[in-house]
Amino acid sequence: MLKNLLCALTAALAIGVVSPHSGAIAQPTTPSVLPTGGGQALIDTSDSVILLLDHQSGLFQTVKDISVTELRNNTIMLARLASLLKIPVITTASEPNGPNGPLMPEIHQNAPHAVYVGRKGEVNAWDNPDFVKAVQATGKKTLIMAGVWTSVCVMFPALDAKAAGYKVYAVIDASGDPSDLASRTTIARFIQAGVVPTSTNAVLSETHRTWNRPEAAELAKLYALVAPNYAAVIESFQKAQEVAKQPK
Q1: Are 117 and 95 in contact (CB under 8 A)?
Q2: Is 7 among the residues known to form the active site?
Q3: Are the CB atoms for 131 and 158 separated by under 8 Å?
Q4: Rounded distance between C-alpha atoms, residue 80 and residue 44, angstroms
Q5: Which of its termini does the chain have fewer beta carbons within 10 Å around, N or C?
Q6: What's the number of domains the chain is made of?
Q7: Where are the alpha helices (DSSP H) in the chain?
Q8: Residue 168, domain extent
Q9: pLDDT tens for residues 117-143?
Q10: With the C-alpha atoms ordered 110, 115, 119, 124, is the resulting torsion angle positive or negative?
Q11: CA-to-CA distance for 45 and 52, rounded, in angstroms?
Q12: Residue 91 forms beta bridges with which residues?
């Protein structure tokens, strides 16, 4: 199994980084609840929407609990994953013409199907009726949220959405806060409210589920994005395979 996984990743890395315009054929995903019960507790892509909240250039400068490079890469991964698996994406920004700055452009570049909802000054996206209507219009009941700041831009709508009956995941490493303390406090409040804290790698793996699928090579590229050190593992494996094939 490990060898097959590494081979798939090696093949993916060999053909470069995924592009939202690469022409890859995305296959519709269906809930995968097996006779064993596998998948029952995992993310159902057919019932999910990704909400990317306030990933703005000005706010990035205040983030201290994660590097901005890692934060942006993880957010890009979510956008690419959404494009590949046909998951709806909704973005929003608080006062993009003010000091908080514009949204990072990579989101809409990598998820061209994403819907942007402007706000009228509301700090909490869930206070904006257009945003809530956009979420409701997807017909999805599982919300995968990330944003800057975690303790405000993610937490406020996450708590409100949970209270409104949605299943909510908060992607902590595609979000950022002014301090580790703010982030840890927010995670504790998420858990108390029933919001599920998670990571980009977990979201990728939960939605991926199996290498036996037509998008496997494209999905493999995303692992190198969220875990650059793992990309080095693949490169060394590929070189070892080449050396093994050389004549003695």
Answers
A1: no
A2: no
A3: no
A4: 17
A5: C
A6: 1
A7: 2-14, 57-60, 68-85, 106-110, 129-138, 155-163, 180-193, 200-208, 216-226, 228-245
A8: 49-229
A9: 999 999 999 999 999 999 999 999 999
A10: negative
A11: 16
A12: 52, 116
- Which residue bears the tokens 């993310």? 43
For residue 188, what are the CA distances in angstroms to 38, 147, 183, 217? Answer: 28, 17, 9, 36
Given 9, 134, 153, 174, which residue is catalytic? 153
The answer to whether residue 16 is domain-embedded is no
| Alpha-carbon gap, residue 242 to 224, rounded angstroms | 20
- The two structure tokens encoding residue 15: 């053909």
Over residues 51-79, the pLDDT tens digits come to: 999 999 999 999 999 999 999 999 999 99
Structure tokens at 236: 């060394």
Is residue 141 in some structural domain? yes
The helix/strand/coil state of 90 is: strand
Beta carbons of 201 and 226 less than 8 angstroms apart: yes
Residue 33 located in a structural domain: no
